[in-house]
Amino acid sequence: MEAGKVLEVLYTFPVEGILNKLASLAAQEISLFRGFKKELTKLRQSLLEIQDFLGDVAHQPQERGRALKDWVRKLKDIADDADNVLDEINYEDLRRQVELSNQKRKKVRNFLSSSNPHLFRQKMAHKIKSINASFLDLKYEASFIGLVSKKIDRTPPEIGGARETDSIFEEDEIVVGRNEDLSKIIITILTDSNLDQENLSVMPIVGMAGLGKTTVARSLFNKDSIGGHFEKKIWVCVSNTLEVNSILSWILEYLNPTKAGIQRLDALLKNLVQELEKKRYFLVLDDVWNEDPQKWSNLMTCLSKLRSAQGSVVIVTTRSASVASITKKVIPMYVLRSLSVDDCWDILKKRAFPDGNAPIAKDLETIGREIARKCAGIPLTAKVLGSMMRSKYSIDEWLEIQKSKMLELPEGDERIVSILKLSFDNLKSPSLKQCFAYCSNFKKDFEMERADLIQLWMAQGFLCSSYNKDMEDIGDECFTILLQNSLFQDVIRDDFGTIIYCKMHDLVHDLAEVVSRSEMEDKLENQHVAWDPSKSSERNVEKRRSLFVNGDQALISFKALRVLNLYRADIEELPSSIGVLIHLRYLNVSRTKIKQLPKYIGKLYNLQTLRMEDTWNLKTFPKEMENLINLRHVYFDYDMPVPFGMGRLEHLQTISPWFPLDKESNRGIDELGGLNQLKGELIIRGLEDARDGVQAGASNLVGKANLRRERNDRDIDVLEGLRPNSELEILTIDKFMGSKLASWMMNGSLPLNLTEIRLENCEECKQVPSLGHLSNLRLVHYLEGMHKLKCVGVEFYGYNHVNGAATSTKKKETLFPALKSLTIRSCQALIKWEELPTDEKVAVFPCLEDLIIRGCPSLEFIPITQAKGMPCLRKLEIRFCRKLSSLPISLEHCISLQELEMD
């Protein structure tokens, strides 16, 4: 094993994490330290000395590879043991905190549990002494094999202030150099008369790895011409499997997510017929590898039974010419060509200079074009190199890349993976490398959820919080940097434009497997993959840190688990032995058949993330769950009666999908009062059980600065107490039963960061809020039954709340300056929408693009006259508004109008 290979193991070596944990425990002045504090000090010193030896590993000659490998393996074993011991100490302290808190609440005095603190101290002291002795032996062994202690910089490298606004993240960015390919494929699909005579036609798109087959297929998939020609579009990532039932199941799940999990062939075909009968569909089977013609024939036979309309098309992307020849039907295979040097330079330049407008030095461009030539027409290579070069500014740094031996390797997968390795080596922080390597646990083409991935990184201890950043914030930075380096791709965004899902290219996945794997007996991957009892030694089981389970397996042996992922496992209950998993940080029981959680789950004091989504049988929860004092993220079903005392869980950041109030369990809205770490979206359901505005005010929503979206309902007193924080971005008021809105919605106190507001099913409400002064507001929807609303009055424009509106300033004021979409629907009593009686000093709706008014039969007038209409209006839809007999003359000023729908 080369000395350089040892470094790949060191990238995942958690020395820094253990040192941070030691520092954290020392800062807490835990009383349990009495009896072994000196040993902890020795442990810290041992780690620092070992860290100095690590600085010499990379410089060792290749012939010492075996000895170095053995030394590093022993080091990692001892470090894992040290990490587990520190975790035990921290766990015991947490347990005592919980028990003390419970006793105070019950107002009873008692000795703390049956645990003997003296015996615990003795046990920990013995373990730490043993670890220190092992480190001492390791230090002697290091000198014996020739390692020299070298003082290294103790300052941990910064992860970096990554920004997610860069253009490289645009999902719909222009596909460079593929316009001709796309045009040819589209013309073939849409104009070939032979296709209309066939029930199903297949076109393989074939090309080597990294050439952009999936990118081309995705671009086709998103084309308006394809969407207009086919009634259904389906995307399935196939990869190494070509099991007919699995593919049919994925197709069905894509068409109808509520039917996920069906596996019987007859049931699959029956449901697919219901979805596709007499419909023309466009199916992409991405990344097909299997060359078995019989399996392909079986799949085509099944697809031919779906009674779909003639002209349906299947696109198959593959590296294999054999697969292409097997799968083609009616349409010839399309062989994707390499890109030109100019195209590669265009890709590389956009990644290296994301701002786009700054001039590029002539010397840099010359070097850059030479690097682009060495990309050999592979867009993935150009993306990766360009992403890496965006952090390099000198000619010498660019020349170093240009002269890299990796760029001289023969064309093929090995060359691309070697170039990807350059990007990996360029990552500055060991934690970044750990985070990347961990992604090898997911199967190829897996759609990784950003939040879930960060929570898994947290559970493994890869992310250490700092004085001004949570672990989640650091995880976000890691995610963004990996994305910037083209190690993640195929992003999906939410309504805010935030990336919520991504994938890895299969060659990038290969790299993740390489850097996470060593040739040791105790592989890193053995700590993280699914369990095969026949292949696991007792030692491996004891040290495993992640477990992805598909069946009912005993947990008592997995004492070091940080992650337990039971997603879709065929289990009906969790064993009580889960309580022994004192290191557990992440538990996922989503889509299982479990009916209740054991009370022993309340012993998981280190648990940070609990996922229980789509667990339809789960109806019973133990009271002990309120003891999960480190819980930060909890996910459950919409109709799940979550009973445990959330108000005690002060570290909670995510409650998804909502915070349920419940009179029976005495869970009131005031429980939200202490949960000031909440982030993202908060939906409060059951506000009919809130007593009054005083109790609602105790929820302290105004103090929750990290919330971006909030949804509330019910009466005026309660709503008055739910004034949101000034940082809120989306507000939904649903089923509000009052006739007047809360004062903070009418007096200019709405959050200035608000981008979206919805009033839904507010049947008794007679007011609309003051909104025109909100400079970031992009969407306003009054939906589904504001039946008592008679007038959208001048207060709607918020003119009195605009700076300068009350003065004689000559400055022109703008109301609704950012609004893009305004919808008013099902307001049966609405008669009048008033104009703002002002002069030319006021502009209204300058950016409005979509105006939709439906189901307002009494409405007589739309104020488009102000300030020469709505100059950006593209779509005007007026339906079921019978008293609107004519359009205003000022509609002629709507010079951007493209769609006009009326009836």
UniProtKB/TrEMBL annotation:
Molecular functions per Gene Ontology: ADP binding; ATP binding
Organism domain of life: Eukaryota
Keyword ATP-binding: yes
Pfam families to which the protein is assigned, alphabetical: LRR_14 (PF23598), NB-ARC (PF00931), Rx_N (PF18052), WHD_DRP (PF23559)
GO biological process: defense response; response to other organism
Disease resistance N-terminal domain location: 16-105
InterPro entries in the record: Apaf_helical (IPR042197), LRR_dom_sf (IPR032675), LRR_R13L4/SHOC2-like (IPR055414), NB-ARC (IPR002182), P-loop_NTPase (IPR027417), RX-like_CC (IPR038005), Rx_N (IPR041118), WH-like_DNA-bd_sf (IPR036388)
Residue ranges of domain Disease resistance R13L4/SHOC-2-like LRR in the record: 553-780
UniProt keyword Metal-binding, yes or no: no
Keywords linked to the UniProt accession: ATP-binding, Nucleotide-binding, Plant defense, Repeat
Start and end residues of each Disease resistance protein winged helix domain: 442-512
Signal peptide start-end: none
Residue stretches making up the NB-ARC domain: 195-354
Stored PANTHER family: DISEASE RESISTANCE PROTEIN RGA4, PLANT BROAD-SPECTRUM MILDEW RESISTANCE PROTEIN RPW8
Protein name: PREDICTED: putative disease resistance
Annotated source species: Prunus dulcis (Almond)
